[in-house]
C-alpha cells in the first residue's frame, strides 16, 4: 500500500469565483488525513493576490501552471470547485500532460448570453451591500487588501465574456481523455443539471454524480460524499 501511495499524483484544490483557499481547508485536511499530498493556491485577484493585466479562465490557468512550475510539480490530480472546475478542464485541454484525474463540483458549464446575464445580476454591488451586508463583509475580509468591488466587476465581465464565447464546447470536450468526475448538488442554483450530464457524456472518460440535498456553497457540502 505504501508503494502505491508514492505513485499517486499530488492533489491540487482550486477554489471558485470570489473564493479563496480558506474555503477548501476542510477538504485539504480530510485528504491529508488519508495520506495524500495536497496543495492549494489563490487565483490572481483573489485573497489578496495581486490582479494581473488580464482576468479570466486563461489567466487563472496560467496561475496554476506557474504554481506547478514553482513547486515543482510535474503532474497533479485536480479538484476544482465551481469556476475552479472550469479552469481545470480548460487546463486539461491546453496542457494535458500536467493534469491527471479531474473532479469538479458545482461547475457551471452551460454558459450562454442569457445564463451569464443571470449570474451577473447577482453581482450587483449596491444590492449586496443593501440586502446581504454580511456577504459584503466576508468578501472585503477575504480579498483584502484588494478592493472586493473591483473583483466583483472583473468577475462579472469574465462571466459575460464566457456567455458570448464559451471556452469549453462540445467539440473540444470530446478531445479530453482525462478521467473527469462531475459532481453537482440537486439544489445547486447555478449549474444546469441536464447540461452537466451532457458534458459528462461528451467527455470520453466522463461521469456525472448528483449529490442529494446539496446546494452550491462548498461550505454546505458533505465532503464524505466526494470521492477524490
CATH structural class = Alpha Beta
User: CATH superfamily, called what?
Assistant: Alpha/Beta hydrolase fold, catalytic domain
Number of structural units classed as domains: 1
- CATH third-level topology: Rossmann fold
Morphology: globular
Number of DSSP E strands: 6
Rg result? 17 Å
Which range does the strand content fall in? 5-15%
Query: Counting H and I runs of at least 4 residues, what is the number of helices?
Result: 10
Mean pLDDT value:
95
Helix fraction bin: 40-55%
Second-tier CATH architecture: 3-Layer(aba) Sandwich
Please provide the ordered H/E string of secondary-structure elements.
HEHEHEHEHHHHHEHE
Layout of SSEs?
Blueprint: H1 2-7, E1 11-14, H2 25-32, E2 38-41, H3 57-70, E3 76-81, H4 83-94, E4 99-105, H5 113-121, H6 125-131, H7 133-143, H8 148-164, H9 170-173, E5 180-185, H10 193-202, E6 206-211
Parallel strand pairs: 1-2, 1-3, 3-4, 4-5, 5-6
Helix pairs in contact: 3-4, 5-8, 6-7
Describe the structure.
- By secondary structure, this protein is an alpha/beta fold.
- The chain has one domain (2-110, 166-225): Alpha/Beta hydrolase fold, catalytic domain (Rossmann fold), CATH 3.40.50.
- It is built from ten helices and six strands.
- The protein has helices spanning 2-7, 25-32, 57-70, 83-94, 113-121, 125-131, 133-143, 148-164, 170-173, 193-202; strands spanning 11-14, 38-41, 76-81, 99-105, 180-185, 206-211.
- The protein has a six-stranded parallel beta sheet with strand order 2-1-3-4-5-6, sandwiched between helices.
- The two termini are 17 Å apart.
Amino acid at each position: 500500500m505504501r508503494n502505491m501511495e508514492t505513485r499517486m499524483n499530488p492533489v491540487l484544490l482550486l477554489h471558485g469565483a470570489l473564493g479563496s483557499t480558506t474555503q477548501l481547508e476542510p477538504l485539504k485536511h480530510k485528504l491529508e488525513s488519508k495520506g495524500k499530498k495536497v496543495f492549494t493556491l489563490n487565483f490572481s485577484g483573489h485573497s489578496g493576490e495581486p490582479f494581473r493585466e488580464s482576468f479570466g479562465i486563461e489567466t487563472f490557468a496560467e496561475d496554476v501552471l506557474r504554481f506547478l512550475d514553482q513547486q515543482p510539480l510535474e503532474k497533479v490530480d485536480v479538484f476544482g470547485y465551481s469556476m475552479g472546475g472550469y479552469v481545470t478542464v480548460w487546463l486539461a485541454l491546453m496542457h494535458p500532460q500536467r493534469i491527471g484525474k479531474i473532479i469538479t463540483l458545482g461547475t457551471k458549464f452551460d454558459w450562454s448570453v442569457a445564463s451569464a446575464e443571470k449570474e451577473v445580476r447577482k453581482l450587483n454591488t449596491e444590492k449586496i451591500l443593501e440586502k446581504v451586508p454580511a456577504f459584503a463583509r466576508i468578501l472585503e475580509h477575504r480579498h483584502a487588501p484588494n478592493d472586493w468591488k473591483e473583483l466583483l466587476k472583473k468577475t462579472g465581465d469574465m462571466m459575460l465574456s464566457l456567455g458570448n464565447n464559451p471556452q469549453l464546447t462540445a467539440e473540444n470536450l470530446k478531445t479530453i481523455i482525462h478521467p473527469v468526475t462531475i459532481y453537482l448538488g440537486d439544489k445547486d442554483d447555478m449549474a444546469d443539471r441536464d447540461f452537466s450530464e451532457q458534458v459528462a457524456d461528451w467527455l470520453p472518460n466522463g461521469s456525472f454524480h448528483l449529490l442529494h440535498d446539496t446546494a452550491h456553497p462548498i461550505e454546505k457540502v458533505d465532503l464524505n460524499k466526494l470521492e477524490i
